Amino acid sequence: MTDLPPVTVRPLPSETISDIRGQLRGTVALVGGGPGDPGLISYRGYQYVGAADVILIDHLAPDLSSIIPADCDVIDVAKLPYRKSVAQEKINSTLVEHAEAGQFVVRLKGGDPFIFGRGLEEQEYCEDQHVSVTVVPGITSPIAVPETAGVSVTQRGVTHDFTVVSGHVPPGHPKSLVNWDALGHMRGTICIIMGVKNGGAIAQALMDAGRDPETPAFVTQEGTTSNEQSIATTLASLGQVLENVNPPAVIVIGDVAVPRPHAE
Fold it and tell me: Fewer Cβ close by (within 10 Å): the C or N end of the chain?
């Protein structure tokens, strides 16, 4: 990650908070917080978080505590694997409950709310209950994290395509919706999120389908934050490398997955 001074995210003026709350009272905003760095949230997302009456927040959302109003009710609705988590049905009903009480409700997510974020489910539920929803897109980590670490997921003369895949479900699992065999036959870039646990099995499935074991792979943990760490490896060694990586992490596989020298 480029060594730049952190962006200071300042609270909104009280008049602005009142104006936004007045305009959006009784509604829900689904806000993408971006890949981790608080300075990468959109301006509209910043305004909505800074004016919310209620915020339902995920564990991957950026730390925006400095701009959250003092009277805002912050509700932790994190879903953590193998730990206590909040059911999606409860999240949906909580959004509607607070909106119907006349509050401006923000659902703050990491990345983009519609990229493996269940944003559509929440939007549909709210609208079925006649609650108006505003969507604020966010910078998605499968693209932003590699590029800040020195890897571009596309490159002229190298690849004409990239595929974003969830690694939450391993290859061969009855619930898997990914055609890993087809991905193994492709030449383009593969960007995997939520794939730390199953990365070794994914790499093996791609090699079994014909992907060259020496294909470059690049892993970035906690991208765009002060804790960012990256490792360059190969498809054959990916599983071993991931044994020492903790989520959240983005995995890039393909000929582009070689960082620029000054970015290492």
Answer: C
